[in-house]
Amino acid sequence: MKINILEIIQSYADKWNPSEERKALAEKRLAICNQCEFPIGDSETTKRCGKCGCFLSGKVFSPRENACPEGKWSSVDFEYFEKKRQKGLRERRLI
Question: What gap in Å lies between CA 48 and CA 30, rounded to an integer?
Answer without folding.
Answer: 11
